[in-house]
Amino acid sequence: MLLEDIVAILPQQPPFLFLDSATIDGNQASGKYLIKGTEDFLKGHFKNNPVFPASIMIEALGQLGVLSLICGKFEGITSEVDPENVYFTSSEGVRCHRVCKPGDTLELNVQLKKLRHPLAIFSGKITVNNSKTVMVESFTLAFDYKK
Predict the structure, then answer these.
(1) How deeply is 48 buried, as exposed, middle or buried, from its count of CB atoms within 10 A (0-12, 13-18, 19+)?
(2) Please, what is the Cα angle at 111 between 126 and 106, to 5 degrees?
(3) Is there a contact between 93 and 146 (Cβ–Cβ < 8 Å)?
(4) Tens digit of pLDDT per residue, the chain (147 long)?
(5) Which of 15, 64, 76, 94 is the most buried (most CB within 10 A)?
(6) Prior bond to 83 cis, omega within 30?
(7) 9 contacts 69 by C-beta, under 8 angstroms
């Protein structure tokens, strides 16, 4: 999936969209995001030393999870997921292993661990150049079906 496909599907939109491409395969999804350096928040995080926030990396994993939930074919999904009613509710076991800066490409992976309406639980990880960057043991999305 390319950026224009993702923009057409996700409720998150630029400038708060942190996926450039994505692939969904069964209960797993992968995606990429290039840290361009033009992201507005980098002007203040940190002054004269732009560091991509770890919280935004977790947001990127959440966005990939939302895309996976909307587009994937999962046992237990009984109707079409409403893109306007998917919300990040929690994360556990978050570990950050490196600083990311403009020019880095985040390679994101999420895997569905458990699904029971109205909750979907994923695990996630991010690497940069095959280097462990962020690990999330679990994050939970609350969702509903289209009416």
Answers:
(1) exposed
(2) 20
(3) no
(4) 999 999 999 999 999 999 999 999 989 999 999 999 999 999 999 999 999 999 999 999 999 999 999 998 898 898 999 999 999 999 999 999 999 999 999 999 999 999 999 999 999 999 999 999 999 999 999 999 998
(5) 64
(6) no
(7) no
* CB contact at 8 A, 100 and 52: yes
Backbone dihedral region for residue 42 (phi beyond 0: left; psi -120 to 50: alpha; all else: beta): alpha
Give me the phi and psi of 100, to 5 degrees please.
-115, 140
Judge if pTM exceeds 0.70: yes
Catalytic residue among 32, 45, 98, 101: 45
45 tagged catalytic: yes
List the structure tokens of 67. Answer: 């895309």
Query: CA nearest 77: which of 19, 62, 13, 86?
Result: 86
For the record, the structure tokens of 116 come out as 């029971």
Which residue has tokens 């923009």?
7
In a 3-state reduction of DSSP, which class is residue 61?
A: helix
